Amino acid sequence: MTEMALTTPAPRKRRSNWQLLMANRLAAVGLFLFAFIVVLAVLAPILPLPNPDITDQPNRLLPPLSQGHWLGTDHLGRDILSRLIWGTQVSLLVGISATALAAIFGSLIGLVAGYARGATDSVLMRFVDMLMAFPYILLAIAIVAALGPGLLNALYAIAIVNIPFFARNIRGVTVSIRSREFVDAARLSGKGHVAVLFTEVLPNVLPVIVITMSTTVGWMILETAGLSFLGLGAQPPTSDLGSMLGQARAQLFTAPHASIIPGIMIFVLVMSINLLGDGIRDVLDPRLRSGALNRPMPITKIERKTQPPAKMENSPALVVENLSTGFDTGDSITPAVRDISFRLDKGECLGLIGESGSGKSVTALSLMGLVASPPGVITGGGVYVGGQEVLCLPEQQLIGLRGARVAYVFQDPLTTLHPLFPVGEQIAEAVLAHKPLGKQAALARAMELMDTVGIRDASSRIKAYPHELSGGQRQRIGIAMALANDPDIIIADEPTTALDVTVQARILELLHDLRRQRGLALLLITHDFGVVAQVCDRVAVMKDGLIVEQGETGAVLRNPQHDYTRRLIACVPELGEGHAFLDRVQPLFERAGA
Ligand SMILES: Nc1ncnc2c1ncn2[C@@H]1O[C@H](COP(=O)(O)OP(=O)(O)OP(=O)(O)O)[C@@H](O)[C@H]1O
């Protein structure tokens, strides 16, 4: 409750899914075309069209725009427009029904296999593998040959060959969902497996099923047309787009319109469905909407209205001036950090403190253009390292500063270290990124650095993999990598949050000593005033993307100016305080209406 009141930003107006779909021009065109074709197909019985099956030999192969036949006639004198609209209705019905069948059976197989695992999973998946072992069109032809030609059998065949596609996709998603805590909780609450599968797992898998359906329905219409083209699908007098194309192929040169017209219809129909399917997928997956799944650019996108001066005279190690960073949500840029300014001298430690979501990490990453773009955008301000504004530098120069003059230590080294390489090699790689050394020299330097950060028995630990080290040792490796190129500034983003208090104290001590010995400027990000009081010379307090207060640590601790700073300080419990801690803190939050 308290946290909510402190952190919840002002509500933003979000665009509805419909508005987002319409904002995607290609998807809107796809929707318009598809809707138009569907309406035509649905209205076929009431449209003033001649009977599509009535032959008229004297009027064979009339060209388009002939009297009474807008699109001409085919080799039996049947009206092409009428056959096209009725044929589209058949193609749509078969394609959509095949998709629904494949989705139902494929998803069921995927759900059961992914949830049950073990023998059930093996048996079901081997069956799916068997289906996939045949080229799909050959398999479809073989199934129709076994069942006999006909539209319904073509529908079954297309559905069967597409079952593996759904089954594999849905199984993958189900496997990752079944091990989530909410599924365990549902099982522990006494729900049976079937209930858990359909009430807990299925709703989470549903968007994937919808996305898969929307992207495969066009494909299935095409496959049905393929079977009909070969004479295995629609049988006379019924026709679909594929059989129209197949029957017209003999007159390809004498009356090309008879095959071109159904060909264009297949193209437009499949294209419109694919465009619409892609649009639906983008709307349903918020990461795609904001571009968060795209490969990030090497440096954060910079869109500053005014350029700050490129140089700053007599500048300390790091100066941040009026920096603003936001995230492009697809609708607008949502600010995460607004107009923040601070300075950091050589050998000084500045604590950046604030609650979760206040913008500490975004600030830290913005300094070297490391916020992933898309969706990140630096919208204003400047960052000066040794007097040089770095965000205006050419890409390669800014990249060259990373790790060399400004290095980072992140919160959880297990996620930043590569799991498949020994830690020594990873430190050596950090050295080699900026120094032209041989591999052996880099490894020797890695060992030296491991010694510096206090890893005992570095000569044997150098070959250890990240999972073979403790949390504290991994964090020391992270610090060794940061020190690899003797940087001027270290940005440590909650380097001790994942560690227990004793290891936390040792890591903080190490950072403190390194700072003293090497004259490093240290920007320490934390949400713990206890840590700030222990190691920081100065502190800047962040709330909702703003720095609300900054100053000497002692002064801020003694006389906090901002109510939020007072509450943060009050949150540090004292040893042996017990219930008195709650009595002391509660009124502060009640007063703030939290
Ligand atoms: N990729 C993203 N897309 C959209 N918004 C984001 C993204 N990453 C972060 N944000 C938003 O930016 C704001 C600041 O996030 P940031 O990670 O800097 O918080 P923090 O203070 O470091 O929190 P914590 O202590 O939990 O790490 C938050 O409101 C967050 O929702």
TrEMBL record:
Location of the protein in the cell: Cell inner membrane; Cell membrane
Keywords: ATP-binding, Cell membrane, Membrane, Nucleotide-binding, Transmembrane, Transmembrane helix, Transport
Residue span(s) of domain ABC transporter: 318-569
InterPro entries for this protein: AAA+_ATPase, ABC_Ni/Peptide_Import, ABC_transporter-like_ATP-bd, ABC_transporter-like_CS, MetI-like, MetI-like_sf, OppC_N, P-loop_NTPase
Membrane topology: Peripheral membrane protein; Multi-pass membrane protein
Membrane-spanning segments: 21-47, 92-115, 127-148, 194-222, 259-277
Origin superkingdom: Bacteria
Record PROSITE patterns: ABC_TM1 (PS50928), ABC_TRANSPORTER_1 (PS00211), ABC_TRANSPORTER_2 (PS50893)
Presence of the UniProt keyword Transmembrane in the record: yes
A Pfam short name: ABC_tran
Annotated ranges, domain ABC transmembrane type-1: 88-277
Recorded family membership: Belongs to the binding-protein-dependent transport system permease family.
Protein name: Dipeptide/oligopeptide/nickel ABC transporter permease/ATP-binding protein
Organism: Devosia salina
